[in-house]
Amino acid sequence: MAGDLRLSGFAVPEGIEALHDLLERVGSEHPDLAALDLSMFETAVIEIANNVVEHGLPPGEVRWSFAVEVRPDRVVGVLTDDGQALPEGRPVADAEMPDVLAEDGRGLPLAHAVLDELDYTRDGRTNVWTMVRRRS
Amino acid sequence: MMEIHTEPVTGYTVLACAGRLTMQYASRLREAVDAAVGSGTPNVVVDLSGTSFVDSSGLGALVAGLRVARTAGGDLRIAAPTEQVSSVLSLTNLDRVLTPHPSVEEAARGW
Fold this sequence. Notes:
CATH superfamily of chain A: Histidine kinase-like ATPase, C-terminal domain
Order of helices and strands of chain B: EEHEEHEHEH
Largest sheet of chain B: 6 strands, mixed
Structural class of chain A: alpha+beta
Helix content of chain B: 25-40%
CATH superfamily of chain B: STAS domain
CATH architecture of chain B: 2-Layer Sandwich
Number of helices of chain A: 3
CATH topology of chain B: Transcription Regulator spoIIAA
CATH class of chain A: Alpha Beta
Oligomer: heterodimer
CATH topology of chain A: Heat Shock Protein 90
Structural class of chain B: alpha/beta
Distance between the termini of chain B: 31 Å
Number of strands of chain A: 5
Order of helices and strands of chain A: EHHEEHEE
Number of helices of chain B: 4
Radius of gyration of chain A: 14 Å
Distance between the termini of chain A: 22 Å
CATH class of chain B: Alpha Beta
Number of domains of chain B: 1
Shape of chain A: globular
């Protein structure tokens, strides 16, 4: 993506902090981007990234890269990682919000709720998550 | 980073979370609620005025804290969430059980 911001590294907790920092830079460099659009986009990015940190195999050895582009009508982020593929049949598109008193299971449904598009594909040996939020 | 400041008040405990309440730090909130409830004060206010960001793990810690407080005969209430936190609470329907109060004082009303 042209004119974007990107990072790469290991899918570990410190990498999550780097993602927060990168998205903070996005806000600084695009003051016209509504704060809520950016914070909701950040919410999705962090949920997907958390998922990679928690479930990526082998643990601590998965490498990822992330790129974000602010377009006039949308924000687009692409997270790729070299961990194992998601298990066949794992629901990505139809994740439902769990009961209010559940303590987990909200990550993917929350990412869906704040995005207009969330797509997962396996490209060779790479997982590719594409996240799109239309600007309000 | 996230820091939790625990302030015991007569009748309840205030837990002020400053920073990002995320996967790396959610266990700290769980431990802080457990400690507050374990000290004999089952009423807890989580002050979110300094919480810039919450993820689903942070939400899970709030729900866990709510359960712990209620099991002990008390309650957990939240105060002054920022825009991202309010939005996420609403999108996950958690605002039904964790009603945002405008301030710590209003959250603790009646305690």
